[in-house]
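Appendix C reproduces, verbatim, an entry submitted by the partner laboratory led by Prof. M.T., so that reviewers can inspect both the input and the predicted structure.
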Amino acid sequence: MIKIYDTENISVSEILKREQTSAGVENIVADVIANVRKNGDKALKEYTKKFDKADLTSLEVTEEEIDEAFSQVDDKFIEIIKKAKENIYNFHKHQVKNSFVISEQDGVILGQKVIPIEKVGVYVPGGTAPLPSTVLMTVIPAVIAGVSQIVMATPPNSEGKVNAAILAAAKVAGVTKIFKVGGSQAIAALAYGTESIPKVDKIVGPGNAFVAEAKKQVFGVVDIDMIAGPSDICVVADGTNDPVVIAADMLSQAEHDKLASAVLITDSREFAEKVSVQIEEQLKKLPREEIARTSIDNNGKIIIAETIDRAVEIANEVAPEHLEICVDNPFDYLDKVKNAGSVFLGKNCPEPLGDYFAGPNHTLPTNGTSRFSSPLSVDDYVKKTQFTYYTKTALAKVSEDVAYFAQKEQLTAHARSATVRFQ
């Protein structure tokens, strides 16, 4: 049963505590990475047989397999994938940043080049809930950025086949290569390379605790998008909402993972109690009831705030991955939102709209990290190189200033480098 709190009787920090578990994960992942580095494809095939029950002779998905999977997916879903792709593309194309050059007087030219990352690895979960939406959200911004090689890793089933919907989404989105490998071993392979899988420059995409830990451990060898934890949603709703709807929105995230978190902040105790009843009723009808119920029982919370303004303040302390503001005038509160991965405004904007279709990215900061990080974007697939040009005359005007600054740091060679051309 979800717990209801009054902020007068308990601190917000106590309310927002969440069950977490990572016992033993760090050492297990370190061993997997070391094995993959040493034994390459052999280690990957052994892990695939052990964890996925698939005995593979080849790790790469062939064009024939992709085409076969595409033909197996119903036409309606293909049409929806294409519509979603268009929406995602149209949103993310506005994130493109251009290089710039500043030509100053007296022989000084400064600038910045925006350069696509060459090789990106995309991890796509394929276990209890295969995520073709993740393919679209991670790959399309990379295509817009100009990434030349997009390598996808996703686990196969026991027959050695990748989920057909995932392969169909990969074909539509523009993936370069696809490999049948999952878990922390996939992250290791993308980071260090094997006989079959190329070493990439950056790894993006969600996963379980082992995948998250592997990304953490390979960071520095490659870049990563973020260390994503279990999903979470925070709903700010006044008492004019339909409790059936709000309960459904909360359960949309609770069914992700037993460690997922669903929080409602409302200004009405009567409404809070109605939502609590609805959550119990709707839980009974979910195929993933066990997962969702564990999430609700351990991490689900309803918080009574004095006003909706105070509710938004509490939401900023939560710093949620997803924030729904379910009121009639949501734009009145948008400027007050300081910490949230993605904001869903109004009574007709459920979070799954963002998961699949609207266009903004669904790869978002979790565990309160929206306090300092951002959704996945085109920016994640580019790097910036700056450049400087001075003529000798221009350097002569500033060389003594540069040398004086260097001497203050007791770096004599720096100072001499600035002045030696004029001695």
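The longest strand covers residues 108-116. Additional entries are available on request from the coordinating office.
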